[in-house]
Each structure stands twice: as C-alpha cells, then as structure tokens.
Write a sequence for this structure.
C-alpha cells in the first residue's frame, strides 16, 4: 500500500465514529427545524407575531440574525435563517475541530514519534491528512444538502422556493466550513504545547460568528463584519437576483489556499517536540 | 563504511542547550553504546538523526544520506524504539503493527507472528489496555518487522522484566549477526557493556569520550583503597594524580591511572594498615570520566 493511502485510510477510520455522530446530529436538527417551520406556519404563529417583531427593538434583534419577518415566513428563508445558527455553526465546529486535531493530535498525543520515524515525508503526512479531512467535509455537506432538500420538500406546505437558491446557499456554507477547516489546521500548528486546541478553536468560531451578528445591528458596523468569514455567506436567498458571486467564492477559496499552503510550509520545517 | 556520521551536529531549543558540536562515526555492523545521564542530550541526538527535529548547525548522514534532505529514504532501513512508548490508544496491537508494516514495502506478517510468539504478546488486545511493559514489546516488534539495517534504540530495556530483557538482547545479537548496526542509548553502562564494542559518553550535550569497552578496561585505571593507621584528609596523596578520591576517617578510596611506582613511593613513610588495588567496574570508570570532566572544567 502506498504511504499516503496508508495514512489516509487510518485517519478515516480514526475519525469515523465522530463523523457519524456529527452527521446524525446535524441531520436530525435539520429535520426538526424544517418540521418546526410547518408547525409555525400552520398555527400562523409567525404572522401573529408580525406586529411584535416589527417594533424597532425586535426588528434590530431579528436583523442581527440576518433575517426579517418575510424571510421567516418563506420555507427557504426560514431554512437559511435557522440554518445560519444551527447547521452552519455546527458544521463549522465539526470542520475546525477535525482539521485542528487531525495533524496536531499526533504531536500532542506523542504519536508523532511513531509516524515521523516511518518512511514518510512531512508533506505526505499533511497531504494524506488533508485528504481525509476533505473527504469527511464533503460527505457531511452532501448529507446536509440531501437532508436539507428532503426537509424542505416535506415541510414546505404552500410556501415555494427556488432550488437553485438552495444549492447556492448550501455551496456557500460548504465554503465557509472549508475555510474554518483551513483556519483550524493552520492555528493548530501555532498553539503552544500544553494549551488546549479545543478551547481556542471554539473561540475562533464563536468570535467569527458574533462579529458577523454584531455587524448586522447597524449600518455603521456593517464593514466591520468582513473581519469574519461568516459575513461572506450570502443568506439573502429570497432576493430575485440571488446568485453565486465570484468574489465571495474567491475569498473562501483564496483564504483556504493561503492557510493550507502556510500549513505545508510550517509543518515541513517544524521541530516536532515530544 | 560509516552507517552514522555526524559533523559538528548542534541543536538548540531557542536558547536551551540540546546537543553541542556532536561528531560521531558509527561503523556498519557494530553495536554502539550511547551513554549519559538523563538530560545529557541522548534523545535530542536520536531525534535529530531521525528528522523529528532539525539541527541548528552541523550535519549528519545515515547510510551516506543527509538526515535532513533524505530522511524518508533513510527511514526505510531504520528501526526505532523510543524510550517512552506512545501509540494510538484506540487501535489494537494487530492494527497498529499492520499500520506500521504498511509503510514498508515488504511482507512483514510472518515476522510479526514469529516475534509476537517470542515475546508472548497478545495481538488482539487494545493498546489502551496494555501495561508499560507490553507497550514496550510492541515497540520492539514494530522496530524489527521490516528487517532494518540500522536499529536505533532509546533506553530500550526500561519497563521490561529481566526475562524479556534477556530475550530482547538475544534478538539484538541475532539481528547484529545478520549485519544490522545497532545504536543503543542508555543511562546505565552496565546495561550496554554486555552488548557493545564501543561506547560514546555524552554529558551536557557534548561527547566527552568515545572508547572501546576493552580499552576502557585496559586504561590501567585502578580503584585503590588504603587504610591508614591515622585519620586522613581526602587530599592526602593528591600529588600523584589520584582522582575521585573520598576519605572516610582512616580509609581513602580513589581512582588511579598513574605509575604504580609513584603511588608506592608516595606511600613510603606513611603508616599503611591495608592496601587494596582492584579493577574498577565500567560503571566506576564511567563515573570517573564524568568527575574528571567536571574537575577539568573547574580548573
């Protein structure tokens, strides 16, 4: 067996259970959320709350979460809103944690002394681990896409949506997860020994999330939001002109590429201290 | 041909000393002992040789290949046993050895079974459930299964019971007779003296001596114990080059490598009750090197 495939399959096996657990949790949440939508719409709860939601304070609150009442009453709008909080956030956690651990745990759990004394180059190690990470990230997104679509179709009722908008939105969330994965991979090499990787990575995701939330509160803080990758996901799925914007795609792919390249460069030269 | 050759190999961890100006030559087929106390730089040397860490300056070659640039090629022919064994806890022994074997493009299965039998290792157990000694056994196996040309062993016997140690040394001798070069690091000389022809002694990051075990013995270093009729000071007969002396009331014990005549002359006129001259153990010779080095530094 080739060196790289040997590591690749071992990594897939190592993180398989964790992947399954995350996939099931996220799938159940998607189904639950879309079912909730049906419940809300049937009881006209959202329509009844419209007055309440449109007073200035509540309006800002709702806007902070990147939405408005019209968004919430449409099935895809609702999905994109709730999705931003649950699915994207969870998916991002999965991605950053897996990427942050896949390389750095070898050093922390001192198994690097085993792996790095085998006939394998540092670059081959990063490649095969990156491949394992990307495999799970892609799989997770295929699952999210399928379950999301099923959920929307089952519970949409008389609300309609453009499937293309759903696809574009899902693609953005995949790119966001990929970018946070790259951030996790890169940061995990910089964190000093004895510090917790997990805490740091959770902090990064929440930090990014809240920067985005705060930036939406007023117009003046809008620019500030671009510090966070979350800002680059376009959740305006109901706009008629909603489409894939290349500058957003370029941002995600560019940032990921830079961070992954840096990871290769750093790991190639890094002293592995056991 | 030299299997391992380093020139001025130096490693600093930021400002902390790892190893300084380490030059070593280890010939093909030899068993080389690498001796020093904890923290002397043994593991740093090994980890630099294996490319886990990079030298600050100097260079090293294994099988004539550069330890930094050709590390992958080198490792195809190296078996390594770390002093502390850390493996993927969730794997079972068989899985781990399979993972290890897959890195080498040779069939290791029969060798795994053979060695597992010798060391009475249960291949189906999970690593997390294994004792330190059993983990050490896995480490022996994974260092040997691909029939390496060079074995680098970092304190290999710690955690092994005497029976297993004996089996382990038998295997090493067998490997060596097939031409495998062995680099054996340890903090106890008595452990390596049975195995090695040459030893390198490392102290505070520097090699202070590389000696043949035989010539170490033949250095005419003698352990001398003299009982006087009166209480003595430790510097009583310092003049003739006695080192590592210690005095206990009437008794003086020291290492002596000078001429016997000088010693006898220095003793003339003194009231000597008893005189014992014996060959020191290698451990004592080793300690002698250390204290001599310290002595020189102070002077």
């Amino acid at each position: 067996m080739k060196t790289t495939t040997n590591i690749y399959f071992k990594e897939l096996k190592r993180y398989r259970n964790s992947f399954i657990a995350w996939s099931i949790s996220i799938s159940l949440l998607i189904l639950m959320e879309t079912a909730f939508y049906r419940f809300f719409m049937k009881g006209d709860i959202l329509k009844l709350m419209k007055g309440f939601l449109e007073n200035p304070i509540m309006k800002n609150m709702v806007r902070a979460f990147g939405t408005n009442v019209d968004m919430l009453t449409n099935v895809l709008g609702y999905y994109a809103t709730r999705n931003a909080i649950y699915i994207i956030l969870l998916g991002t956690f999965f991605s950053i944690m897996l990427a942050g651990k896949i390389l750095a745990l070898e050093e922390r759990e001192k198994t690097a002394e085993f792996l790095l004394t085998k006939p394998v180059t540092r670059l081959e190690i990063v490649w095969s681990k990156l491949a394992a990470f990307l495999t799970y990230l892609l799989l997770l997104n295929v699952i999210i896409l399928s379950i999301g679509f099923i959920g929307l179709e089952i519970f949409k009722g008389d609300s309609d949506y453009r499937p293309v908008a759903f696809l574009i939105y899902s693609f953005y969330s995949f790119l966001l997860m990929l970018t946070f994965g790259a951030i996790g991979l890169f940061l995990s090499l910089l964190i000093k020994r004895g510090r917790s990787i997990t805490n740091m990575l959770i902090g990064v995701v929440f930090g990014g999330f809240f920067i985005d939330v705060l930036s939406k509160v007023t117009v003046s803080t809008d620019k500030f939001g671009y510090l966070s990758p979350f800002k680059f996901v376009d959740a305006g799925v109901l706009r008629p002109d909603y489409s894939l914007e290349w500058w957003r795609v370029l941002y995600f792919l560019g940032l990921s590429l830079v961070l992954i390249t840096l990871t290769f460069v750093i790991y190639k030269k890094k002293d592995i201290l056991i | 041909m030299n299997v391992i050759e380093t020139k001025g190999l130096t490693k600093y961890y930021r400002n902390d000393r790892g190893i300084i100006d380490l030059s070593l030559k280890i010939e093909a087929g030899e068993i080389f002992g690498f001796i020093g106390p904890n923290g002397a730089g043994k593991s740093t040397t090994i980890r630099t040789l294996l490319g886990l860490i990079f030298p600050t300056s100097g260079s090293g070659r294994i099988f004539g290949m550069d330890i930094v640039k050709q590390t992958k090629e080198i490792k195809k022919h190296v078996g390594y046993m770390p002093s502390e064994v850390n493996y993927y806890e969730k794997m079972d022994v068989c899985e781990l050895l399979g993972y290890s074997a897959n890195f080498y493009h040779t069939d290791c299965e029969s060798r795994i079974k053979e060695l597992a039998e010798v060391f009475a290792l249960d291949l189906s157990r999970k690593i997390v459930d294994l004792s330190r000694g059993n983990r050490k056994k896995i480490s022996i196996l994974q260092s040997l299964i691909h029939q390496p040309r060079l074995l680098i062993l970092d304190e290999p016997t710690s955690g092994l019971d005497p029976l297993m140690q004996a089996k382990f040394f038998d295997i090493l001798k067998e490997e060596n007779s097939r031409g495998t070069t062995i680099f054996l690091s340890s903090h106890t000389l008595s452990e390596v003296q049975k195995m090695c022809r040459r030893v390198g002694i490392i102290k505070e990051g520097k090699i202070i001596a590389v000696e043949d075990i035989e010539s170490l013995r033949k250095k005419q270093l003698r352990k001398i114990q003299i009982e006087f009729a009166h209480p003595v000071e430790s510097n009583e007969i310092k003049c003739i080059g006695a080192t590592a002396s210690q005095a206990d009331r009437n008794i003086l014990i020291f290492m002596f490598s000078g001429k016997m005549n000088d010693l006898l002359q220095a003793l003339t006129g003194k009231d000597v009750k008893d005189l014992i001259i014996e060959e020191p153990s290698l451990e004592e010779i080793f300690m002698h090197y250390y204290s001599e080095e310290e002595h020189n530094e102070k002077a």
Q: What stands out?
A: The mean pLDDT of chain A is 89. The longest helix of chain A spans residues 122-155.
